[in-house]
Amino acid sequence: MSVTVRFAPSPTGQIHIGNARTALFNWLFAKKAGGRFVLRFDDTDQERSRREYADQIEADLSWLGIKPDLVVRQSERFALYDRAVEKLKEAGLLYPCYETAEELELRRKIRLSRRLPPVYGREALKLTEEEKARFEAEGRKPHWRFLLPNFDDDPFAPQRTEIKWNDIVRGQQTVDLASMSDPVLVREDGTFLYTLPSVVDDIELGITHIIRGDDHVTNTGAQIALFQALGAEAPAFGHHNLLTTATGEGLSKRTGSLSIASLRETGVEPMAVASLAVLIGTSEAVTACRDMDELASRFDPASSSKSAAKFDPAELQMLSRSLIHSMPFEEARPRLQELGIKGRQAEAFWNVVRGNIDKVPDAAFWWKVVREGPERPALSAEDGAFVNAALDLLPPEPWDRGTFAAWTDRVKAKTGRKGRALFKPLRLALTGLEAGPELADLLPLIGREGVLSRRP
């Protein structure tokens, strides 16, 4: 059976780098196995789900280099879930419960006061048909719980029932079903909680491997039991460590915390985001990968640590700069053309300025400096006179990288200036800044006429 994975975001906000970590783990796992990647929108919450969020998520994944083989929406698949509900009811594995939230909370507190685990006691299984009818007459609607297979004959005498799996990330894992409450699968209003639609879709879509955050480890036991109750073999599971902020706080897509969209808008390179999202919190050194093939070669889900990994935006900026500083012209060309940087000088220009910019759009500033010159710099009268004298000594064209040294040697001999006193006024006059790309490289791009036009 070929590998099929899924990334299943809820379109209730923008995805952040922590969500991207899960998407990339699945994408790279499928890529290495020659498998399929399914994007499944868990949009059963009709009130909070928005199509614009779903569209944004698809755009964010595409920017990162993730191209789904299939896109499905749970909001279009309710008939599948209804059939699963009826199957579970017929098997006696889904039972109605009429407790209110307040009643459940009171029972939880009583169990805790008796030093008992706060597990649902299956009181609803004891209800008679008359009692159920009375609740219905009162206007109560039931929620429906899945009866976990953690007993022999008596559901009120649960016993240790171990669900084991060899986790792709964490190795051998065990969950005791007796330590869990029967999960609610259907709410009072008939809407579905996450577990039922997720398991039904995983079965119907042929998902073979589920890789997600380690906050799902415990409920994996109940989900494996539900797979089995629906007559299916459970997929393989993997649970990677989560990302937090540098201060240890969890990331939230509803607050826009470190969203992929905001990172893209700031000009961060997509492979910087992908590299950090995948490699942080693993035994691999966090360095920028040039493309997905290189990242896939370094990806090993089992190398993830079991503790949360702290994400530092400064590290992301560093990775992004390293990618830009080594980016070949052919890769940068389409983006440079969008900035108006084109023509016979474009390649030489890019190779000169890429080491002095933090993001590709910054190149537009230096293109303007080369083509049009800087704003008139504030030079002292003495420095202005020096620059004018230096411009009188400009050698004739053609120019190359050695022209600047030849020119400044003549200027030094004529004026007696050297070091900072020589180079700073020239740089200010030519670029308007005290730092930037090597003047030896900029000079041939500006040209003799362009240099003379910058006379103070």
TrEMBL record:
Family matches, as PANTHER family: GLUTAMATE--TRNA LIGASE, GLUTAMATE--TRNA LIGASE, MITOCHONDRIAL-RELATED
Intervals of motif 'HIGH' region: 9-19
Family: Belongs to the class-I aminoacyl-tRNA synthetase family. Glutamate--tRNA ligase type 1 subfamily.
Annotated compartments: Cytoplasm
Name of the protein described by the UniProt record: Glutamate--tRNA ligase
Species, as recorded: Chelativorans petroleitrophicus
Domain Aminoacyl-tRNA synthetase class I anticodon-binding: 397-454
UniProt: ATP binding residues: K253
UniProt motif ('KMSKS' region) ranges: 250-254
